[in-house]
Each structure stands twice: as C-alpha cells, then as structure tokens.
Amino acid sequence: MASIINQEIPEFSADAFVNGEFKTITSEDVKGKWAIFMFYPADFTFVCPTELEDMAAQYEELQGLGVEVYSVSTDTHFTHKAWHDSSEAIGKVTFPMIGDPTGRITRGFNVMIEEAGLAERGTFLVDPDGLIQVAEIHAGGIGRSAKDMVRKVKAAQYVRENDGEVCPAAWEQGGDTLKPSLDLVGKI
Q1: Residue 185: what pLDDT?
Q2: Residue 49 pairs with which residues in a beta bridge?
C-alpha cells in the first residue's frame, strides 16, 4: 500500500449536515486552511458517538488554530440530521457531518471497508495546500482521542512555520524541538 502522506486529498462534492442546515461541501472549500477528516463506520452506533462528542469538545480550540473538522461516514446527510436530533452526544456536534453514500470520499482516503460499505475509523490532518500530513486508522473497537489530534495539529503547524525544525515524540506546544543535522546523528 502506497503512503498517503503528502498526497493531495481527493476531489469531491458532498452534502453535509451543519448547524441545523444542509450544505454542499467540496474539496475546494477545504483548501487554504487546515482540516481534519474524521471517518467513522456508521451513525447510530456505539464507539462513533463517543468520538464525535470528544471531537466536539475540542472543536473551539481547533477553530482557534484555524482548523475545520469534517466527520464523514457512508450514511447520508439526512441520517446525520436524524442522529444529531436524537442523540445527546451528537447534538453537541457543530462541525460539518458529511454524507458519503457513494463512498467516493471514503475510497479517496483509502478507508472503505468494501464488503461492508462502511468507513474505517480513519483520521487525517490536511494542510492548507490540501496535502495529508497525518493519517491514522484504528480498528473498529478502538476509539480515538481528539485531544491528541489537537497536539498533532499544533506540531504540524509548528513544523510548517519553522523550516528546518522537527517535533520529537509527545511534543507539546512550547516544548523543545530539534534541528536535524549531522551533529545530532547518534546523539539522541
């Protein structure tokens, strides 16, 4: 399987449920800002609402960092609205919930479970150029941490803004970074 890192996101146009309205979102809408694509198997399930609620709790901070969040499943935008209206956890979601019933977006990010017609639990951080900088795929029973994604956003933004520097493991904003050089080889 070829790496998806630094690959451009697929072109798409899809309907989404956003803040009580239906809206069309395209790949062109994504470019020019940071974005998180959060794929999940299905609405009205078990792990998925805990993840979307967790991301909703971090959404304000992410927006402050210039990041838009897009949750995506192969359900329709109509199903997203029904779920939003009936679930206390999903009722907290204000970011776009994209419907991908054809699977075009899901396949474009290479997270389609073909035999089920559902998305893997995949998370992707996309830079303002539309290039994927972080890609994670979890097994269906393992929930993600939105707080850790916030940390990764801050690291990716730091690296983009500070040419020649990299963030070490578990880096937190304000922490020490590294400047790769011949002098560091074998010293870490």
Answers
A1: 79
A2: none
Asked about 167 being catalytic, the answer comes back as no
Token pair listed for 78? 């109509």
Catalytically annotated residue among 48, 56, 98, 135:
48
Cα 89 from Cα 29, distance rounded (Å): 27
Give the pLDDT score at 138: 93
> Which residue pairs from 106-115 have beta carbons closer than 8 angstroms and sit at least 24 positions apart in sequence?
106/39, 106/72, 106/74, 107/10, 108/9, 108/10, 108/11, 108/12, 109/4, 109/9, 109/10, 109/37, 109/39, 110/1, 110/4, 111/39, 111/137, 112/74, 113/41
pLDDT at 72 over 90: yes
d(CA 111, CA 118) in angstroms, rounded, equals 9
pTM over 0.90: yes
